[in-house]
Each structure stands twice: as structure tokens, then as C-alpha cells.
């Protein structure tokens, strides 16, 4: 079935306070990330991956950091994007938040 | 700047009652689609594209149709995906809805 109903979806817990639900095609993966570990007093460690990324802020507020850029305050409806290999991270400003992260190619490490 | 603040974003109007805001990298494009033309009494015409697609239902309720599949009733938090070339369409069940559509490769026709 080419759909994922949130309430029935398998839940991954990549770290405490984070739930991940995902769908993918051959070259595209989209994950709903639910954070309940905010607000955070400092950013997560910077990380990078060869996969290109776009992210939609579905709920909550975050700071988005990317190497060479000023920190960006994002809230519901806002988007960010990450070219291949660019170091980036987020910091939660709200107690909870939801990001919808898309990656190409597929994050095989998420499957 | 690797972000798009919703309130400042350029707005495309691909059809009456639809607003589109987007970001993209080299091979990945994500568009926020705001629909205000619902509810609809019948589905949009089926269409297809070589681009793979994933979609997140950020607001509202829709029916999702794809060739060879039963119609799916989706609401906030749910996802669907479309392999390359598969015919699909939606029907709005609510007055307004927001979908977050991701495509790989980039939808050059959206730029």
C-alpha cells in the first residue's frame, strides 16, 4: 500500500525523545521526526551525510545551523535544505517539535 | 540562505485555490502546497511524472488515488508515496488542506 497512516506506522526510536516514521521510493525517503526532548540549551552536534536533505517544520520551533551560515529561527511552515556533505544540526526551542525530513538518495541507515 | 520562511516565501499559484512554496537542492525538491478549493466532489484528473514523490499531509483530509490501489483516506500526519511514472491524484475532503510534496529529481517545471 503506497501510504503510511501515522497511527499505525512502525515507530523507530533513533535516540531518547525522538520518534521516526518513514516512507520511501527507490531514490527518495521521507521521515516524520517527533521530538519530545526540548527545549535544548545547546545545539545537537553538527553532522553531515552525502544525501541531500530538505526539511519542513510541521510543529514547534527550532534553530537551524549549517556551516558557513547564520543560525536560523524556524517555526511551523518553514523549510530548510542541506546540500550533500554540508555540516548541519538543529536545536529545539520548544518542548516538542515535528520535522518532516526528506532525503535523496534513500538513507539506507534508516531502513 | 538555506531556509525558506513561510511568511516571506515567493508564492506560486499553479491553479486557482492552490498556493505553492518550495525549496530544492540539486536532486531534491520539496513544495508546500496550500489548497483552499475543497471540499471536492470528485478526484482531480489522474496524472503521472517520471519523478518519484513522497507527500506528507500537514493539514486537512484527502483521498489519495493511485492506479492499481484502493483509494486511501489520509489526514494530518499521514504520508503517501508515488513511484516513477505511476498515475495518481487526490481529492480534498476538507475545505482547506496542506500537503508537503517532495520529488526526486527536481521538478524543473516548478522552477
List the helices and strands and how they pair.
2 copies of one chain form a homodimer.
Chain A: E1 3-4, E2 12-15, E3 18-24, E4 29-35, E5 52-59, E6 61-66, E7 72-75, E8 79-82, E9 88-92, E10 97-104
Antiparallel strand pairs in A: 2-3, 3-4, 4-10, 5-8, 5-10, 6-7, 6-9
Provide the CATH topology of chain A: Jelly Rolls
Greatest contact between two chains = A-B, 42 and 42 residues
How many alpha or pi helices of chain A?
A: 0
Distance between the termini of chain A: 17 Å
Trace the largest sheet of chain A across and list its strands.
2-3-4-10-5-8
Specify the structural class of chain A: mainly beta
CATH class of chain A: Mainly Beta
The major sheet of chain A is characterized as: 6 strands, antiparallel
Order of helices and strands of chain A: EEEEEEEEEE
Strand element count of chain A: 10
Descriptive notes:
The structure is a homodimer of 111-residue chains. Chain A is built from no helices and 10 strands. The radius of gyration of chain A is 14 Å and the shape is globular. Chain A has strands at residues 3-4, 12-15, 18-24, 29-35, 52-59, 61-66, 72-75, 79-82, 88-92, 97-104. The first copy, chain A, has a single domain, classed as Sandwich (Jelly Rolls), CATH 2.60.120.10. Chain A binds chain B through residues 1-7, 21, 23-30, 32, 52-54, 56, 58, 64, 66, 69-70, 72, 74, 76-84, 86, 100, 102-104, and chain B through 1-7, 21, 23-30, 32, 52-54, 56, 58, 64, 66, 69-70, 72, 74, 76-84, 86, 100, 102-104. β1 of chain A pairs antiparallel with β8 (79-82) of chain B.
Amino acid at each position: 500500500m503506497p501510504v503510511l497512516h501515522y497511527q499505525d506506522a512502525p515507530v523507530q526510536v533513533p535516540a531518547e525523545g525522538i520518534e521516526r516514521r518513514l516512507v520511501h521510493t527507490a531514490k527518495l525517503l521521507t521521515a516524520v521526526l517527533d521530538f519530545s526532548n526540548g527545549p535544548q540549551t545547546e545545539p545537537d552536534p553538527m553532522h553531515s551525510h552525502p544525501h541531500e536533505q530538505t526539511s519542513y517544520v510541521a510543529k514547534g520551533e527550532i534553530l537551524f545551523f549549517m556551516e558557513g551560515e547564520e543560525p536560523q529561527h524556524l517555526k511551523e511552515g518553514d523549510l530548510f535544505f542541506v546540500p550533500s556533505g554540508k555540516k548541519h544540526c538543529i536545536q529545539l526551542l520548544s518542548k516538542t517539535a515535528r520535522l518532516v525530513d526528506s532525503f535523496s538518495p534513500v538513507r539506507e541507515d534508516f531502513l
